[in-house]
Prior knowledge:
Blueprint: E1 4-9, H1 13-23, E2 29-35, H2 39-49, E3 53-55, H3 58-62, E4 69-72, H4 79-88, E5 93-96, H5 103-115, E6 120-123, H6 130-141, E7 147-157, H7 174-190, E8 196-203, E9 210-218, E10 224-230, E11 232-243, E12 246-250, E13 263-268, E14 271-276, H8 282-295, H9 304-323, E15 327-328
Parallel strand pairs: 1-2, 1-4, 2-3, 4-5, 5-6, 7-10
Antiparallel strand pairs: 7-11, 8-9, 8-15, 9-10, 11-12, 12-13, 13-14
Amino acid sequence: MDKLRMGVLGCSRHYELRVALPLRSSLLVEPYAVASRNEAKAKEFADKLDFPKAYGAYGDLLADPAVDFVYIPLPNHLHLEYIKKTADAGKPVLCEKPICLNAKEAAEAAAYCQSRNVPLMEAFMYRFHPQWVRAKEIVVAGEIGELLAVHGHFSYSNKDGNNIRNRADAGGGAIYDIGCYTASSARYLFGREPARVTSTLIRDPSFKTDILVSAILDFGEGRTATFTIGTQMHPGQRVDAVGSDGSLSIEVPFNMYPDVPGKVTVSTGVGRRLIETEIADQYLLEFDAYAGSIIQQREAPTPVSDAIANMAVLDALFKSAASGAWETVQKY
Length: 332
């Protein structure tokens, strides 16, 4: 089977650090073209990471008939614009999280792609890792009883004012960058949407981005998810799920290493055990799963409706932080 030729918009450091190497092992994806607004930068990036084509304008890449699908790791505020432009070019879209800046934009992006019969998926890589697949199986099977609470923590320390994650005008900040994970993972384990949320938020006095956020998501019937995220905090990450008959914990839930087993600790009345899942690269799994859905002409493995629902939660978190009250999660 011929590989799908992928175009990448932007010389992404994220792509270079986490995606480029695993894709060398892909049987479905060929990194084919990269585009930057700086042609010299695009050529340097292409030479370094073995892209046959380099373009000095995003539109030139989108116009290339050899590009089979497009990966968008651009700054968050550019996602909607280039999802639409990619759809206009008739090419499937894999867009980095968060898919847009709010649920209204996400719904607009989904409708736009649907009107042009173009697949669209948000790039949440963690769901493809075997440790999350196993954790979800355990919850669904009822091994820890009724799921009652999910607790998440995700943080890092970045005080560089030039970093895109610290630019409010580009969609920076903790909720967009890492809160999307803690909200998404809680929704994934519960298998439903929260009805309302409440949150507290602190902004950096210079950057104006949110740097410390704590939240409660109300999933009904007393079931909640809580999390704290920070961008100027000691680095760490963890997810714990507690049920009526047991609990599970994922040691490295999001930035999982590609060369060691995943670790899920499960405690029940029978005892406590450590499950080590197979060694896997979640980015390779994600890109191959999306490429496979294009080849087989089936729905994207993570439907775009999930992206819209997650953005609705983030919207409510921002609204609650401003109002100081519980805010309803809107449905789209």
